[in-house]
Amino acid sequence: MTSLPRSDQVQPFRHVRFIMVQPSHPGNVGAAARAMKTMGFHELCLVAPKKHDMLRHPDAIALASGATDVLEQAIVVPTLGDALAPVTLAFALTARPRYLGPPACDIRVAAQLAQQHLAHVADARVAVVLGTERSGLTNDEIGLCQRVCHIPANEAYSSLNVSQALQLAAWELRYALLEAQGGTQLPDTAGKPDPGTQPASSERVQQLMEHWQEALIWVKFLDPDHPKKLVPRMRHLFARSALSNDEVDMLRGVCTAMIKAGKLAYAQCPPRGVSPGSGET
């Protein structure tokens, strides 16, 4: 799949809103802003926050950790209905099973549904709605959403901090959006390829093999008169390893050190007969 230009990749992220209903802890709001920005989202909406200065509170700013622009651009509204006014598909994130209300799905399916909605519906806007830290969303609040979604957490202890739950939701949404666009999930090195990491040429590998064979003779690991199958096995090993230029240079350095050590040992205690690599008696 061909990757879209960066501006086109970013576009769907601008149509996703994260809504926190009646947040009471400024630190959670700051942490939520940070969680959103790390996943490429920026639209945060607070519904009737418990503190009037929630977005400017020192704890919010501290835990935003560089995502203060998300806090500065955040929207504050009195009701969830106001927060959902421009939204065309809203997911109520909850840990408790709901016997009445919208159909339920897990957060991964919700992210896929959100991606499809954004891709195929004109002027689409998606929202993820999170409830209060203590009690979550009420049935009436959930009734304003089109879908209920759950994070498949440990059933014995499914309670998640609201900012942690938002982080997981933002991650799933990001992955679904990038995957659909053919975007990469790997970090960009933003530079020219390192020539050292490129595959070594056949010529360089053969030169390494000759150097390696000489080194093995000097350290008496290879008997040139009775090589058996050692050399072809080494050759197959190097060929199979698909060595990079840096790896060839590293192994050539090992060869040089081995030959130096072998020559030093020979100089200190020359053996009788043929010297390694010299061919002289």
Structure overview:
- It comes from Yanghanlia caeni.
- By secondary structure, this protein is α/β, with parallel strands linked by helices.
- It folds into 2 domains: 6-181, SPOUT methyltransferase, trefoil knot domain (Alpha/beta knot, 3-Layer(aba) Sandwich), CATH 3.40.1280.10; 195-268, Helicase, Ruva Protein, domain 3 (Orthogonal Bundle), CATH 1.10.8.590.
- Helix content is 45%, strand content 11%.
- It contains 11 helices and 7 strands.
- Strands 3-2-1-6-4-7-5 form a 7-stranded parallel beta sheet.
- It starts with 5 loop residues before the first helix and ends in a 13-residue tail after the last helix.
- The relative contact order is 0.12.
- Residues 1-8 have low confidence and may be disordered.
Question: Would you summarize the structure shown here?
Answer:
Its main location: cytoplasm. This protein is of the alpha/beta class and 281 residues long. The protein has helices at 6-10, 26-38, 58-64, 68-73, 80-83, 107-120, 139-142, 162-181, 202-218, 230-241, 245-268; strands at residues 16-21, 43-47, 75-77, 89-93, 104-106, 126-130, 147-150.
Topology:
Elements: H1 6-10, E1 16-21, H2 26-38, E2 43-47, H3 58-64, H4 68-73, E3 75-77, H5 80-83, E4 89-93, E5 104-106, H6 107-120, E6 126-130, H7 139-142, E7 147-150, H8 162-181, H9 202-218, H10 230-241, H11 245-268
Parallel strand pairs: 1-2, 1-6, 2-3, 4-6, 4-7, 5-7
Helix pairs in contact: 2-3, 2-8, 6-8, 9-10, 9-11
Protein name: tRNA (cytidine/uridine-2'-O-)-methyltransferase TrmJ
Catalytic activity: cytidine(32) in tRNA + S-adenosyl-L-methionine = 2'-O-methylcytidine(32) in tRNA + S-adenosyl-L-homocysteine + H(+); uridine(32) in tRNA + S-adenosyl-L-methionine = 2'-O-methyluridine(32) in tRNA + S-adenosyl-L-homocysteine + H(+)
Keywords: Cytoplasm, Methyltransferase, S-adenosyl-L-methionine, Transferase, tRNA processing
